[in-house]
Amino acid sequence: MTKGSSGDTPDKASDRAPGDASEASEASDAWKRWHEQRVATVSAPYGPLALTGTHWLEDHPDGQLPDIPGRWTTDGDAVLLTAGRADGLTVDGRLLDGEARLTADRGPVDAARVARGERRLVVLVREGLWGVRDFDPAAP
After folding, report:
1. Domain ranges, residue 34
2. How would you write the pLDDT of the chain (140 residues) with one tens digit per residue?
């Protein structure tokens, strides 16, 4: 310890209170666990890093969304999706050949009603505006 004008102060790590090093180690370990969990969450197949686009239907009056097949239009309190078999879209696990009336998805991304292969197309509504979020687990 050194004597200064403000009193005794520790001048090296060994002079610190016994709990300081273990508390720092615990905090460091807790942060590492949080960081590992966060990386796993965001890089999960349908985590935030899999989101490749959010498309608002009002921005696409022709119903053609970028890189998403089918025709997506608003129909009052729902979205009307029109697609043919060649589009490869499924609704509730069945290949869509015709029209499907969709409401906003409420569950996790992997439970979205509309899919194309491993991609999930999540229907959403925010402040009365309809949109589609495209989650692709193969996104770079």
Report:
1. 2-42
2. 545 445 555 555 555 555 677 888 899 889 989 888 888 777 778 989 999 999 999 999 999 999 999 999 999 999 999 999 999 999 999 999 999 999 999 999 999 999 999 999 999 999 999 999 999 999 87
91 membership: H or E segment, kind and range: strand 90-91
Q: Are residues 34 and 63 in the same domain?
A: no
The gap from C-alpha 71 to its chain's centroid, in whole angstroms, comes to 24
Residues 6+ apart with CB under 8 A from 115: 89, 90, 93, 121
84 and 117 share one domain: yes
What DSSP letter does each residue of 6-63 carry, written as one string?
TEEE--SGGGS-THHHHHHHHHHHHHHHHHHHHHHHHTSTTSGGGEEEEEEGGG-TTS
56, HSE (Cβ side, Cα atoms, 13 Å): 7
Is 77 within the bounds of a domain?
A: yes
26 part of a folded domain: yes
